[in-house]
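Quick one, tokens below:
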């Protein structure tokens, strides 16, 4: 059985214990980091050892309406992507390292 993902409260508790600060201060830091990531995503925002948040352009493409099966054009648009760093992938999935 899989365990539950950490909640924001769980993350703040862990950070406050590890950094010997209050949960409130850890929350302010996390909120500021999040705001900075949103603001800088247009230019790409890197969290060293974790990954990169960046805007990507999707090309116009053809798709199908799942309700009717009719073919339709999906317009080009900008999307936000998070690319996981190689370091993070190697730590989380150590058995998948390339030989």
């Amino acid at each position: 059985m899989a365990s539950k993902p950490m909640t924001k409260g769980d993350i703040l508790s862990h950070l406050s214990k590890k950094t010997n600060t209050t949960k409130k201060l850890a929350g302010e830091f996390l909120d500021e980091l999040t705001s900075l990531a949103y603001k800088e995503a247009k230019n790409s925002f890197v969290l060293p050892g974790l990954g990169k948040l960046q805007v990507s352009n999707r090309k116009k493409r053809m798709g199908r309406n799942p309700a009717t099966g009719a073919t339709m054009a999906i317009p080009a648009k900008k999307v936000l992507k998070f690319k996981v760093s190689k370091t993070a992938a190697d730590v989380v999935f150590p058995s998948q390292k390339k030989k």
